[in-house]
Amino acid sequence: MRRLSALFRLAIVLVLAGFVVGIVGILSAPHVGDIATSGEWSHSPVGLASTGTRSLVYDRNGELMATFFDENRSPILLGQIPVEIQQAILAIEDSNFYAHQGIDLKATSRALIENVDAGGISQGGSTITQQLIKNLVLSAEQTVERKVQEAALAVRLEDQLSKDEIYEIYLNTVFFGSTAYGVKAAAEVYFGIDLANKSPEEITLALDEGIGWPEAALLASLISNPSVNDPTVNPQIAKYQRGIVLDRLAELGFFTEEEAQEYAQSPLPTERNQPSLPSADDFFVAEVRRILLDDPTFLGGGLESRLEALLGINGGIRVYTTFDPAVQTMAMDARDEVLKVRWQVDPTFTIGVASVEPDTGAVRAMIGGESFDAESQFNLATQGRRQPGSSFKTFVITAALRRGIQTNDKVNGEGPCEFPEETEPDGIYEANNFANDEGEIAEIKDLTLRSSNCGFLKLGQIVGVTNVIDTARLLGVKSELDPVISLPLGVEEVSPMEMATAYATLATGGVRR
Question: Tell me: the pLDDT tens digits for 279-326?
Fold first, then answer.
């Protein structure tokens, strides 16, 4: 059995030797050409592919309120990453990283033999630079031709970037499993370290406090096979692979073998943690997302490119919004006061709220329903259209003022009142004042205080319902409005956001933001 094992290792070395000769030949070829032509060999820079990064959405105070991502990745500087993680990954993936020039032929042959003896992944075969080339330039295809190309590009990348730059990119892009790309995301997922919305200093401190040798060794062991070595899925395999990393670190002198055995007894994570990233499942954030995707003003390009930008596929974006958490809290308290305390209505009923700051047009709060987690994520504030009722009468007064009518002018507000209307069954539209009040001929300001239906219906006829519609448009109402006689009573449906915008325009003296 030992003889067979020795023969097997010899065969591996011989195959590897042939492969090494091939690589050396490829890498030497340009220099041979250089001698033959007495010219200078040059090449274009190696282009690393863009990597996905979380897109972050902030409120008006600069606090993180939501994230969008296709790949859970958030880059940090090399100096923020604990030394334990850096050394553990180097030990198992490329212990000679800071000495070689992109490829390490000796380490490759040694790694193959060590892995056979260990019965697992004890040492990586490719250098970190080669892995970076594989991940961000080439494919994962396992062919001799691709491996030779990988090696050649690795040497070129080492001429292009410093060792620290290469390692920083690697540590921020390598996949640790469970949607976690890079060290920061991996620390959040496997160890529950809260790094969301933290300053660089806070991130550094949290990682230093939460990561020791056992944690670093576990992360290093995940790289070779994230799904199989996942401690939440295969704890026995994960413990074994972590032990291999710890033994390698002890061999390199970072701690003693006794300490390695002690670290190996540290408990493994039993569940994956969802990073404490604010959810994008929110009415306000959903509206931000819709605007960014529908309106090319912000992200440009077509819908697909805007979606890629929002999901951070080619590098995340930062979105700064007008949302005010304090105003949102007041809006929700007001909703609960009306529905649950005052009215005590069925829980299936809710309220749509939109709060607009007049001087800036900033939307400070939004309630689109009882819960965004409901089966229908219909936003009552922006999509819900309801009859605004008497709040629409303000637009009739505004239209009247635009046409020179004064609030001390008198209009007949007596009720009931009748108007010819072709759409009515008998050709007559009849209305009453509130509580069937008889009403009177009075000044417009007095009819307004009484919210006189008949008075405003007649004022609408005097002004012209089409002029009322035009005024509503100028104020910010975008919904379709039919020029019916009953328009002044708010029978045409509009959204809360439109009404908030229109009233904010009035509050600024007619300037719509």
Answer: 566 899 989 999 999 999 999 999 888 888 888 777 788 999 999 999
Dist. CA 433–CA 416, nearest whole Å = 7
Q: Which long-range contacts (CB under 8 A, 24 or more apart) does 205-209 make?
A: 207/80, 207/81, 207/82, 207/85, 207/183, 208/82
Tokens 């080492």 belong to which residue?
158
CA atoms in the 13 A half-sphere facing the CB of 465: 16
Pairing of strands 180-181, 72-73: parallel
| Three-state secondary-structure class, residue 180 | strand
- Please state the pTM of the whole predicted model: 0.66
Of residues 350, 371, 287, 353, the one with CA closest to residue 322: 287
Residue 60: strand, helix, or coil: coil
Which two three-digit tokens encode residue 207?
């990682």
Integer CA distances (angstroms), 11 to 23, 109, 218, in order: 19, 11, 32
Task: Report the distance separating Cα 254 and Cα 93, nearest Å.
Answer: 16
- What are 190's two structure tokens? 């496997």
With a CB cutoff of 8 Å and minimum separation 6, the contacts of 182 are 73, 74, 75, 76, 171, 172, 173, 174, 176
Cα dihedral: 183, 251, 99, 15 (round 10): -100
Render pLDDT for 192-206 as a digit per residue (tens, 0 to 9).
Answer: 998 877 889 999 999
Query: How far apart are alpha carbons 55 and 315 in whole angstroms?
Result: 8
Distances (CA, A) of 314 to 182, 197, 372: 15, 21, 29
Place of tokens 């062991």: 221
- Contact (CB, 8 A) for 412 and 467: no
120 pLDDT tier (thresholds 50, 70, 90): very low
Side-by-side strand order, sheet with 318-320: 64-68, 55-58, 318-320
Q: Taking the CB of residue 335, how many other CB atoms lie within 10 A of it?
A: 16
